[in-house]
Specification:
Shape: globular
Low-confidence stretches: none
Order of helices and strands: HHHHEEEHHEHHEHEEHHHEHH
Distance between the termini: 60 Å
CATH topology of the largest domain: 2-enoyl-CoA Hydratase, Chain A, domain 1
Mean pLDDT: 91
Number of strands: 8
């Protein structure tokens, strides 16, 4: 039946009932098709109602859904002839970031993204999608390779943030992120970035300096997680609650709708009803179409023009309005 979030419990009950009725009707003469059809209609209406009124905190939960497609899932669905490349040529290969070269709709591209991992063993291997400095340096190495061969770059953003461990700090976590921000701003080939799940802090920014930045409908993108924000602002010895996290999520303005209204992102890619994990093939197709369409509008630009427009785009983020005295 899959994994259900807290606010989906009513859906879980209905879908469990539908499955039970389907099993009951198998191999018997009992005709309960009309009842199944009635429940399926009710389920669809309920799902539509729930997902048309999501709070920012609920969207955060969907962005973190364990069944949501990750970078390697999308690569498997939309990238042909993918060859993964490893290592930063300085320290190690970081499994929290995957990257390589392949084709999307027949066009060669470098694809780079965070990878969280499924199941305890893989999540530990991938460090829960939290890159070390070598991960960002690997990503930058691949971007420079793409620039050398004049191949477009696509990045998939999905991380709680860069890993804050002692080893990561010793190896220059802040410097690695800062270098990526600087170098991506002047890479002489098109860059398209898509937030597919959780875009957390500098760990997300280090792969999202782009000519076009998109978000999936139920993804989030912010300077800090709602839990981290709540802990800084309101924790005074007692335990924080879900209400605190929800309050922080509201204040952070981290949803795709918020960020489009602020002109931080270029557009939103709609998800299937219920989230990307409900119909992964459908959302993968939309992502591929978005990449192809975006590339058509920027690939004819000269490197100098591309960099100039990317610079202006970044400088426009954020604005100040002065009212009367």
């Amino acid at each position: 039946m899959g994994y259900y979030l807290d606010f989906e419990k009513s859906l879980e009950e209905l879908e469990t009932k539908i499955e039970e009725l389907k099993k009951l009707s198998d191999g018997t003469e009992i005709d309960i098709a009309s009842e199944i059809k009635r429940l399926e209609k009710k389920t669809k209406e309920l799902r539509s109602e729930i997902f048309s009124n999501l709070t920012p905190w609920q969207k955060t939960m969907i962005a973190r859904h364990p069944e949501r497609p990750y970078t390697l899932d999308y690569i498997g669905m939309i990238v042909e002839d993918f060859i993964e490349l490893h290592g930063d040529r300085r320290f190690a290969d970081d499994p929290a970031i995957v990257g390589g070269v392949g084709k999307i709709n027949g066009v060669p591209m470098f694809i780079i993204g965070h990878q969280k991992g499924r199941g305890t063993k893989e999540r530990i291997f991938r460090n829960f999608g939290q890159p070390n400095p070598e991960g960002y340096r690997k990503a930058l190495r691949l971007m420079r390779l793409a620039e050398r061969f004049k191949i477009p770059i696509v990045t998939f953003i999905d991380t709680p943030g860069a890993y804050p461990g002692i080893g990561a700090e010793e190896r220059g976590q802040a410097e690695a992120i800062a270098t990526n921000l600087m170098e991506m701003s002047r890479i002489k080939t098109p860059i398209i970035s898509i937030v597919i799940g959780e875009g957390g802090s500098g760990g997300a920014l280090a792969l999202s300096v782009a000519d076009r930045l998109y978000m999936l409908e139920h993804s989030v993108y912010s300077v800090i997680s709602p839990e981290g924000c709540a802990a800084i602002l309101w924790k005074k010895g007692g335990e924080l609650t879900t209400d605190d996290f929800s309050r922080a999520a509201d204040a952070l303005k981290l949803t795709a709708d918020d960020l489009k209204s602020f002109k931080v992102i270029d557009d939103i890619i709609p998800e299937p009803l219920g989230g990307a994990h409900r119909e992964p093939d459908a959302i993968a197709k939309r992502i591929a179409e978005c990449i192809t369409k975006s590339l058509e509008s920027i690939q004819t630009k000269s490197p100098a023009k591309l960099i100039e427009e990317r610079y202006k785009k970044i400088r426009k983020i954020g604005s100040l309005t002065q009212t009367g005295q």
